[in-house]
Design a protein that fits this description.
Length: 338
């Protein structure tokens, strides 16, 4: 282990960090804890074996799965503070069984992800990246850019009216378009029209924006019949998780013009993006950047740190994802609506 991988904090509580987390104050984590930056290590397995008996918390991010076997290697682990609203890489059941608390970072990224959803939707409908390429390639000199589709007059369907879904809905309403939604439950007094099934939503609207958690309950829910129901003028925007969409069915629907276009920030097997999607002119692709402004990642990192700090000061977790033996929150399932 090099000195750059390990710093001693005043409390001496040892934390494993699995991905870079930018903070406004670069030493913020190190002042409070003894940090072990697995992501920066040249020999992560050796580092893990060395520090495992002393680790009491994980600052979790990036592709590494925090599963039962890993938890079993860390006998003193009390808390997994996960970076991001989605926490599918943390096995929350395995954590609950072991009495380990799990937190995420809802709220602080809501507006940023909603902004990106609007940007991707408008880019897809008005073909902004294609228009940019048109200018750069000098094609404007030979003629006008082809007329695009329009947002106006459309009905938008939001899948998952949680925090982010509501922020997207507010933005859509400001653009003067009708908003409908589908989710596990109806949201009372939302002001938007609820569709009890996804298929009904797809039949009703012509833009579908996905902002639902990527878990077993949503896996592959946007499938061939849903895409067919969205129709030949339909547009799919995904800022949630690639797992929510049957990616092969989406490729086929775009290829066969069953839907008009798609704007995708997330994919089934990131960072792999199917060559078929890359080759398509009716697709806008972004590399999972929904929350990725420096400001918002700093706020997310701070919430990871605040969760760890609160926990070890015995104030309980600030934003727990599920109730566990050690949790003292009265709002245990709040992340479902992140
Ligand atoms: C992050 C996200 O980019 O919050 C989420 O669920 O998908 C994004 O904000 C991601 O968590 C980084 O790993």
């Amino acid at each position: 282990m090099t000195t750059s991988e390990q710093h001693t904090g005043s409390a001496g509580i040892e934390i494993l960090m699995t991905a870079a987390m930018p903070t406004r104050d670069a030493a913020a984590f190190d002042r409070r804890f003894t940090m072990h930056r697995l992501w920066a290590s040249q020999a992560p397995e050796a580092m893990l074996s060395d520090v495992a008996p002393r680790i009491r918390g994980i600052a979790a991010g990036g592709p590494m799965r925090i599963d039962g076997p890993l938890m079993d290697r860390l006998p003193r682990l009390e808390i997994v503070a996960s970076f991001g609203a989605g926490y599918e890489r943390v096995d929350v059941e395995a954590a609950a069984v072991r009495g380990i608390t799990v937190t995420n970072t809802p709220g602080v990224l809501t507006e940023e992800v909603a902004d990106l959803a609007m940007a991707v939707m408008l880019s897809t409908i008005r073909r902004i990246p294609q228009a940019d390429r048109f200018v750069r390639e000098g094609k404007w000199l030979s003629g006008r850019f082809p007329l695009s589709a329009s947002l106006q007059g459309r009905k938008i369907g939001i899948v998952g009216l949680g925090r982010i879904g509501k922020a997207i809905a507010r933005r859509c309403a400001a653009f003067g378009v009708d908003v409908h939604y589908h989710g596990r439950t109806e949201v009372p007094d939302s002001g938007y029209r609820f569709c009890p099934t996804l298929l009904e939503l797809a039949r009703t609207v012509d833009v579908m924006i996905l902002s639902t958690p990527g878990d077993a309950g949503t896996h592959g829910m946007v499938d061939a019949p849903v895409l067919a129901a969205l129709g030949p003028d339909g547009i799919l925007v995904n800022v949630s998780r690639g797992s929510v969409v049957d990616q092969d069915a989406l490729v086929a629907a775009l290829r066969d013009r069953k839907i008009l276009a798609a704007g995708l920030d997330v994919f089934a097997d990131e960072p792999e993006v199917p060559a078929e999607l890359i080759a398509m002119d009716n697709v806008v692709l972004t590399p999972h950047v929904g929350s990725s402004s420096l400001r918002t990642w700093q706020n997310m990192s701070q919430l990871v740190l605040d969760n760890l700090t609160a926990w070890f000061e015995e104030r309980g977790p600030l934003t727990p994802v599920v109730a566990t033996r050690k949790t003292n929150s009265s709002e245990p399932d709040r992340a479902r609506t992140a």
